[in-house]
Task: inverse folding
């Protein structure tokens, strides 16, 4: 199986610059507009995917950790909720390090700033831009999931011209005289004595074939205007910082009623006062007294789901870990809960009451009757 590194022809230790450079070189070579070999399209897709994974620090780390087949397997697994498939308008798509089978042409466009090389045909209406927005959520919301409203600004359809760009709802348009409505113009060129006919986008109407005679003043005839929108985000239980949700078609509307881009909500989880998180496990360190460590005790411990009794057996050493099963975070895909791992830290009292002091002194006297720790240690 060819690794993503092999596909790009870089070493496993390649820097991000090297990866980008390798991608650029290969993507240009195999872009279906340039390379007419039937297998070029497949190769182009492979290159794009390899670049998508290796250019993302988190994805690359997971890939290195899991190996090629393990990573691809995890990608195929998808999510229990949502999955990685694309949805229609307004659909939701969860993504994490395994998610996001990004369109290879989108990747190409983001690197080269253009979708392809061919310019001969009528200009496709360009899709609106996708928007990324960070949503801060509490530790609790990340663990249990929530519905939470967020406001963001985007380009929406112009309310005055309904996206047409002209007043009177699109009636103020006429056929472009330069290209007679075809959106393209042809010119003859001669290279090394050979004649070529070159077809390019009409510069007058930018390929639309129509010209606006009565431009909308509200949107400078782009057909869109800035607005603030709000959306209720369905925060999945188990989400972590960096995971993003895609809302298809909720990004910027394209110019003149062309389709909207997507909205990506990226989660940023605030830390908790006492709990921390490692994957789906919850970590908690609690202080216990010397007597509790020596004699044992049963303690009521807070968990993210409520409280649990923890039995500290007699003779517990400092930094011992205890596992509370199924008291961790639900897995975002399977909803299976992790554990809560409780570490005990024995607190040595710095200030003693008279009574405590006399008890410790008594203990010291008793301990001096038997061989000291040091003697045993060196014997
Ligand atoms: Zn308008
Ligand atoms: Zn024209």
Result:
């Amino acid at each position: 199986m060819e690794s993503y590194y092999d596909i790009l022809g870089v070493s496993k230790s390649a820097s991000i610059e090297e990866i980008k450079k390798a991608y650029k070189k290969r993507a240009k070579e195999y872009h279906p507009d340039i390379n007419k070999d039937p297998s070029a399209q497949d190769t182009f897709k492979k290159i794009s995917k390899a670049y998508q994974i290796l250019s993302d620090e988190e994805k690359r780390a997971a890939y290195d950790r899991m190996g090629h087949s393990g990573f691809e397997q995890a990608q195929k697994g998808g999510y229990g909720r949502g999955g990685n498939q694309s949805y229609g308008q307004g659909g939701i798509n969860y993504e994490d390090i395994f998610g996001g089978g990004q369109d290879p042409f989108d990747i190409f466009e983001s690197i080269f700033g253009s979708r392809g090389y061919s310019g001969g045909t009528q200009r496709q209406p360009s899709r609106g831009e996708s928007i990324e927005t960070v949503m801060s959520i509490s530790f609790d919301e990340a663990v249990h999931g929530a519905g939470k409203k967020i406001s963001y600004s985007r380009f929406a359809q112009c309310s005055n011209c309904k996206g047409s760009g002209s007043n009177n709802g699109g009636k103020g348009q006429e056929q472009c005289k330069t290209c007679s409505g075809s959106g393209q113009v042809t010119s003859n060129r001669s290279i090394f004595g050979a004649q070529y006919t070159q077809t390019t986008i009409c510069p007058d109407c930018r390929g639309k074939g129509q010209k606006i005679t009565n431009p909308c003043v509200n949107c400078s005839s782009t057909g869109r205007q800035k607005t603030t929108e709000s959306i209720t985000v369905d925060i999945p239980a188990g989400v972590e910082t960096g995971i993003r949700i895609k809302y298809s078609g909720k990004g910027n509307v394209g110019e003149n009623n062309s389709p909207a881009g997507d909205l990506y909500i990226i989660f940023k989880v605030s830390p908790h006062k006492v709990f921390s998180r490692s994957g789906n496990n919850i970590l908690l360190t609690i202080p216990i007294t010397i007597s509790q460590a020596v004699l044992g005790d049963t303690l009521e411990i807070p968990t993210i789901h409520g409280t649990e009794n923890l039995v500290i057996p007699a003779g517990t050493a400092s930094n011992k870990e205890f596992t509370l099963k199924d008291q961790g975070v639900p897995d975002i895909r399977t909803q299976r809960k992790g554990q809560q791992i409780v570490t005990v830290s024995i607190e040595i009292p710095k200030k003693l009451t008279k009574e405590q002091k006399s008890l410790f002194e008594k203990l010291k006297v008793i301990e001096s009757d038997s061989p000291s720790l040091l003697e045993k240690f060196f014997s």
